[in-house]
Specification:
Strand order of the largest sheet: 14-15-16-13-12-18-19
Mean pLDDT: 93
Number of helices: 14
CATH superfamily of the largest domain: Aldehyde Dehydrogenase, Chain A, domain 1
Length: about 500
């Protein structure tokens, strides 16, 4: 058996990745990125400006001329190689993801990186499947031959959030590259390091210069992308408030197409016939995964009044077992934690404000809600409120932290009506042993994803996106390809004498 050949350590990158090269920002501006577990500055990162965005778009535009005509099998092979390279370097990527984002390293490795690999491999399988169909025309007796083609939309601007940096990068790059688009991607200024490191692997996987360009910076950089006249499409994941700004910027310039995966205030309904052990796990996973920093978090739990108290015992039991101490790294001298810190002080203070609001408005503290600032790090322990009313701030607004709201209901019709009484519609869930009840609720719940007897059950083949203010379009699955293609209809007479 051949000896194990460990991968070489990747260089940690702080520069912009443009035209397959790491370059300094033309302005020379930098910004710090901070480890939320220690509150220490990790390093200074290059901050893109308009000149850098212009250079990235020029590179992407030049690359699109040939990449759009590339063979789907070649794009498939590049994506497969990229997935293999991520797998080969997963330990270092997970280390950096944990350091920059705060999530425990074993979670970054076992969950995030695993899904990243699955994503690139899934869309590799779609790269050579694009096509169209022959159209049966209606206005003649078969004298016209018509068919459709699916063509790449062009240079795409992609703006991703900080909660799942590598995974959100993969969700965006996978379908765009599979379809032959080129990309200018802005990473979150809160978590730029792992996404920049991917530039090494993208280049090694064989993607030509200019196909993928990665930049860093604050929201103003995202606006530069949304307003750029030579970008044909923008894809954004983040808050609904910023989503509105993206739409305005795109509409005021070249009317580029827009896809949005935005916020949520998702409901999980626990019926009186539910398996309460199963329901408690669904609620626990739905809220406390990634320190509550998840757009589809089940932050509103509607529990039938007959099983409320038993459910609370179980869900509190799960939450109290979460290990909060430790820094989440692989260092065996440090306790391993399940719950890392919030991403930064801004998020930490925002969540504390919600907790104080819940107490002030009369919700009952069932667990936590009195966090004492750790000596270092932005840690907030799992928090659960009961006796929550629908008009309370914690029941209406997206908290993006480990704060669960539990509310009683009497009838399923009431619970569904209350669940739908929100501007959001990203996800929902229901726990019941009656399949008829479950499917009827799935019909009535206004959400892009409805989970039955589970929550946060993700698969790359299944589309993800929201109704209402939770967004436009879908990520993942075959539906994601629609974001990156234009449909062209070609028509001609069948009679060769008229061709």
């Amino acid at each position: 058996m051949a000896a194990f050949d460990p991968p070489k350590r990747l260089t940690r990158e702080t520069k912009l990745f443009i035209n397959n090269e790491f370059v300094d920002a033309k302005s020379g501006k930098t910004f710090p990125t901070v480890n939320p577990a220690t509150e220490e500055v990790i390093c200074e990162v290059q901050q893109a400006g308009q000149e850098d965005i212009d250079a990235a778009v020029v590179a992407a535009t030049a690359a699109f001329k040939t990449f759009r005509k590339s063979n789907g099998c070649d794009r498939r092979d590049m994506l497969l190689k990229l997935a293999d390279l991520v797998e080969k370097n997963r330990k270092q990527l997970a280390e950096l993801e944990s350091m920059d984002n705060g999530k425990p390293e074993h979670v970054a490795d076992g969950v995030d990186i695993g899904f990243v690999i699955e994503c690139y491999r899934y869309f590799a399988g779609m790269a050579d499947k694009g096509g169209g169909k022959v159209i049966n025309t209606t206005r003649d007796t078969g004298g016209t031959f018509a068919f459709t083609k699916h063509e790449p939309v062009g240079v795409c601007g992609q703006i991703i959030p900080w909660n799942f940096p590598l995974l959100m990068q993969a969700w965006k790059l996978g379908p765009a590259l599979a379809m032959g688009c080129t990309v200018v991607m802005k990473l979150s200024e809160k978590t730029p390091l792992s996404g920049m490191m991917m530039g090494h692997l993208i280049k090694e996987a064989g993607f030509p210069p200019g196909v993928v360009n990665i930049v860093n910076g604050p929201g103003a950089v995202g606006e530069m992308i949304a307003r750029h006249m030579d970008i044909k499409k923008v894809a954004f994941t983040g808050s609904s408030a910023v989503g509105h700004k993206i739409v305005v910027a795109a509409g005021e310039t070249n009317l580029k197409t827009v896809s949005l995966e935005l916020g949520g205030k998702s409901a999980l309904i626990i019926c009186n016939d539910a398996d309460l052990d199963q329901a408690a796990v669904a609620a626990h996973v739905g809220l406390f995964i990634n320190m509550g920093q998840c757009c589809c978090a089940s932050s509103r739990i509607f529990v039938h009044e007959d099983v409320h108290d038993k459910f609370m015992e179980k869900v509190i039991g799960h939450a109290t077992k979460l290990r909060v101490e430790g820094d989440g790294t692989s260092d065996t001298t440090v306790p391993i934690c399940d719950v890392g810190p919030q991403v930064d002080k801004i998020q930490y203070d925002k969540i504390l404000g919600f907790i104080e609001s819940g107490k002030a408005e009369g919700a009952t503290v069932a667990l936590g809600a009195c966090p004492k600032k750790a000596e270092k790090g932005y840690h907030i322990p799992p928090t659960i409120f009961t006796d929550v009313k629908d008009d309370m701030k914690i029941a209406k607004e997206e908290i993006f932290g480990p704060v669960m709201q539990v509310m009683k209901f009497k009838t399923l019709a009431e619970a569904i009506e209350r669940a739908n009484n929100t501007c959001y519609g990203l996800a929902a869930g229901i726990c019941t042993r009656d399949i008829g009840t479950a499917l009827a609720a799935a019909d009535d719940l206004e959400a892009g994803t409805v989970w039955i007897n589970c929550y946060d059950n993700f698969d790359m083949a299944c589309p993800f996106g929201g109704f209402k203010a939770s967004g436009w379009g879908r990520e993942k699955g075959e539906y994601a390809l629609d974001n990156y293609t234009e449909v062209k209809c070609v028509m001609m007479p069948k009679d060769s004498r008229h061709v």
